[in-house]
Amino acid sequence: MYSKDMLTGIILSSFVLEIRINKDKKLAIGYRTTVSLVARGNLEWLNAIKRSLLQHGITSKLNTKESKNRPSPLLRISSIKNLTKVKTLLKDLPSKNFKTNQFNELVDLIADKKHLTLNGFDTILKLKGVI
Fold it and tell me: Alpha helix (H) ranges present in the chain?
């Protein structure tokens, strides 16, 4: 198991922020936004991270199915409840690879349900770099 500080360092250095936007006619703005943190690596390492995350009340999903497009296992943290816990774990620590400010803004936007408004959706598109 990793300590809290080691886990924080692993998240900042190895996890990537993933923003997915899919069409959904059921929603008022017509799009569903999914935010998650994703890490790739060998299975033993990802299992150790998953167990360490559980110690902090953060659940994650481990996908071990390999394909042509994705040869290595994948660990994903996705629900807003878990992302909020990661946000408190990270505080405002800077990182070269991980955009902490962007992550914090997205989590706040989703937690406040502003991602369901047109202004919130525009903010997400700007953060993603689409507009």
Answer: 4-14, 43-55, 80-90, 100-111, 118-128
